[in-house]
TrEMBL record:
Family in the record: Belongs to the thaumatin family.
Disulfide bonds: 30-220, 71-81, 86-92, 137-209, 142-192, 150-160, 164-173, 174-179
Protein known as: Thaumatin-like protein
GO biological process: defense response
Alphabetized SMART domains for the sequence: THN
InterPro entries documented for this protein: Osmotin/thaumatin-like_sf, Thaumatin, Thaumatin_CS
Pfam family, one: Thaumatin
Localisation per UniProt entry: Cytoplasmic vesicle
Record keywords, A-Z: Cytoplasmic vesicle, Disulfide bond, Signal, Taste-modifying protein
Domain of life: Eukaryota
PANTHER family with a match to the protein in the record: OS03G0233200 PROTEIN
Origin organism lineage: Eukaryota, Viridiplantae, Streptophyta, Embryophyta, Tracheophyta
Record bears the keyword Signal: yes
């Protein structure tokens, strides 16, 4: 009984380490104002060099962080954004409207690992870096000038659309689950090799960190 009690006591610090909330520091290094958005988390205006920190509960899945651009909100937090708009709300309750560069995450999943990625499946609006600030794992980055090089048919005000948004076909949207790379997805992949370029781009685009890692998402790194 004594040794069992001792083992339980020794396990308590470990359980605390893997189950506390993860801190996400969201940093605007762009030369212009962005309206950061997070699900879960809400949203906030970030002028250049400003940081917004949020805590995300362990076990969270479907998490996203993104930048909204060219927004206007009234005193009640209602308005609109040119890219990344989330239902006209400053405090996002749901995902944003393409095109928007996404930091995606699921925390404390298989074998207590965090799964993270940068996704261009909803297109691109601002460059992004998504990196750990603790833990033993690598960061990911998409810093290319995708807006400046965007194919004409994918161009959108303030960003570059993914072809699924424009053409809405199975070839680009993978609605049948059997699609592969296309010329358009390769444009995104060649510019940002770490990022998802189409929905089935898992092998080169999903990264893991130990559960309990904290992160920084930087716009315009």
């Amino acid at each position: 009984m004594a040794s069992l009690g001792g083992l339980s006591f020794l396990l308590l610090p470990l359980l605390f380490v893997v189950s506390h909330a993860a801190t996400f520091d969201i940093v605007n290094q762009c030369s212009f104002t962005v309206w950061a958005a997070a699900v879960p988390g809400g949203g906030r205006q970030l002028d250049p060099s400003q940081t917004w920190s949020i805590n995300v509960n362990p076990g969270t899945t479907g998490g996203r962080v993104w930048a909204r651009t060219d927004c206007s909100f009234d005193g009640s937090g209602s308005g609109s954004c040119q890219t990344g708009d989330c239902g006209g709300l400053l405090e996002c309750q749901g995902y944003g409207t393409p095109p928007n560069t996404l930091a995606e995450f699921a925390l404390n999943q298989f074998q207590n690992m965090d799964f993270i990625d940068i996704s261009l499946v909803d297109g691109f609006n601002v460059p992004m870096d998504f990196s750990p600030t603790s833990g033993d794992c690598r960061g990911i980055r998409c810093s290319a000038d995708i807006n400046g090089q965007c194919p004409a048919e994918l161009r959108a005000p303030g960003g570059c659309n993914n072809p699924c948004t424009v053409f809405k076909t199975d070839e680009y949207c993978c609605t049948s689950g059997s699609c592969g790379p296309t010329n358009y997805s390769m444009f995104f992949k060649n510019n940002c090799p770490d990022a998802y370029s189409y929905p089935k781009d898992d092998a080169t685009s999903t990264f893991t960190c130990p559960g309990g890692t904290n992160y920084r998402v930087v716009f315009c790194p």
